[in-house]
Amino acid sequence: MADRDPDTIKREIDEARDQLAVTVDKLAVRANPRRIADEVKAGIVGFVKKPAVTVTLAGVGAVVFVLFVRRVRNR
Hints:
This protein is an all-alpha fold.
């Protein structure tokens, strides 16, 4: 192994530390539970607002309502 200049070694260590700090910061942002929850919520709202999904959910809601009313009447 060749002898290296101490200043070069220090500079390389500083660069590696800076790169590690950037990586840790990126991971902290990506793993933020609030951000993840907001993204999931936005995805679900976007999906539900599609016309086909809205109509399907309305239909399912109507069927559940009818079944509930029938069950209450038959008691």
